[in-house]
Every structure is written in structure tokens, then in C-alpha cells.
Amino acid sequence: MSRMDGVLNIDKPAGITSHDVVARVRHLLREKRVGHTGTLDPFATGVLVVLVGRATRLAQFLNGLEKEYEAVIRLGYATDTGDVTGKRIAGASAVAVEPKGNWSREQIDAALAALRGEIDQVPPMYSAKKQGGRKLYELARRGEEVERAPVRVCIYEFAAIPVAARHTAELLKDNGDGTFDFAVRVTCSTGTYVRTLAEDFGKQLGVGAHLAELRRIRVGDFPISEAHTLDLLKLNAAEESLGTILYSTDEALRRLPALNLDAADVARVRNGLSVKVSDASWKAGERVRLRDEHGQLIAVGEFHREQGSLHPSVVLARDEI
Questions:
Q1: What is the pLDDT confidence band of residue 2, given thresholds at 50, 70 and 90?
Q2: Domains of the chain, with CATH numbers?
Q3: pLDDT value at 243 more than 90
Q4: How many of the other CB atoms lie within 10 Å of CB of 188?
Q5: Which residue numbers are catalytic?
């Protein structure tokens, strides 16, 4: 198989880690340089953006993309992990409203609204976030809990599914065991924990809550409609048709503005040298795709307004694309 560098949009199945997905891609493509741009919990499914080959150099431009999810919040009790895989927390099952599940639409809308916009989230103990050089979940598994500083995140959308439903009965599914499922759509900044959002939503309603289901349906410009399963990846690898599902490095960064260079400037950029630009409307510090005369990405440059130039911050030689 010839070497291929680019980006894959993988539909991660439930029951495996994001690291497992990376390992399988390495094995299928026989490529050591494979990474991803944002972890999904093992129970979660959906879009996992996987970087292959020299595209791993572009991670810094893809790590901060906003993410969109469809999730089910289970109202009735909290768990130690914040999701369905955890243990039920004793005393977290009491529902403050009688009869159970009889929240008004106004109460639900107010709870959703309270968690939109910029909010502070305390990272859950069962997370890969590091503190003092240790991953929090490692401490949690030892029964330790440490104080965590809140992190500012942005919740762009937090809405019921279907958003056009008129009555509470259409929003809540009675599970018949004292719990109720509430389906939501979440669009958020990177670094957001949807598990924590589910817990905080329950607190707004005066009830323990946890995340029962989570499916990531978009990362930036990578939608679930264009995602491929690992089985399909295996088939394409066997048929040597990866080009049909692999985003080129240029396409993967399509959010960035682009500039096509002539041969002389291409040579300068390959050597890490700046190129002059005129009549540029970019903001100072803005990142720009630098392409050769064939439209292939050779570098990502940073615009220096005072010098009127683009300085390559990441260079991909033409034979590395």
C-alpha cells in the first residue's frame, strides 16, 4: 500500500476507546503516525477525527473546533462517573417535584437557558484531564478526589429534541422505574464535558442526573453524515481505495483562507522563509493555507500585518502531501 497522508472521519462505535480506534487505523494502514483531535468516552459513539501520516502535524489547527452532540440525559439519580457506566450515588435519587417527572415546559426551558453561553465547568474526576502530573481518572479509581479548578467553556446550543415539541410529555420519556430520559442537542466549545452538563441540568431541576447516551454528530466541518465505520475503512484499505474516504490535508483545513503561490514562493516556503503578500485583508496572526501551483497544501502560514508577509509555521514538503 502506498503511503497516504490526510484526515479520516471515523464513526467510533461504542465499547472501545479513542486510543483503540487509533491503534486499529495504525494496523490497517500500516502507518505509525496516527492521532486524533478529541477523545470520545468508550460508551459514546460518533465522529472521531483521525489524522494520518504527516497530517498529524496539523493537529494544532483542528484541536479547537467546536463539537456537536446528540445526547440523552437520565433524570432520577447521579453516578460517580457522570454517565451510564458509573455506579449510582447513594441518596441521589430523590426527585424534588411531585408527581415525579412533572416538570413544566417553563422549568425545563429555564434549566436549559441557564446553561447556555459561557459557563464555568468543574472537570469530572473520571476524566483524562491532568492535575499534578496525574490523570484525574487514575486518582478516582484509587478512591481519591481532589479539588479541581473550574474551566470556562461555551455552550452555543443546548436544546431539547425535538425542539418543536410543545408539551413536557413529548420531551420526557418515562422509564417506569422512577427515571426519565430527556434527549438534547448540544453544540459547544472544545473542552466541554457533556457529562458535567447533564449533571448540572439535573441540579437546575433539583434532581440527580447522568448521561445515558452520547453521540457526536459533528466536529467542525466533519459531520456524521460523512463519517465511515472501521469496517468500511478495513474494506477500503484492502481494496486500496482509501482516497475515496480520506480528506486531503488542504481539504481538512478548509476553514482557513488559502493562497496559491508561484514556484519561487513555493521554494521559499519549503525552506521556512516568509513570502510577501499585497492587498491582504487577513487579521494579524491569522492562519492561511499556502498551496502550490497544483493546489496542494505545502504549509500553513501566519500573517504578519506590519511586514506584509506570511511566515510558514508548519511546513509540508510537496512529496509529503
A1: very low
A2: 6-65+221-251 (3.30.2350.10), 67-218 (3.30.2350.10), 256-320 (2.30.130.10)
A3: no
A4: 22
A5: 41
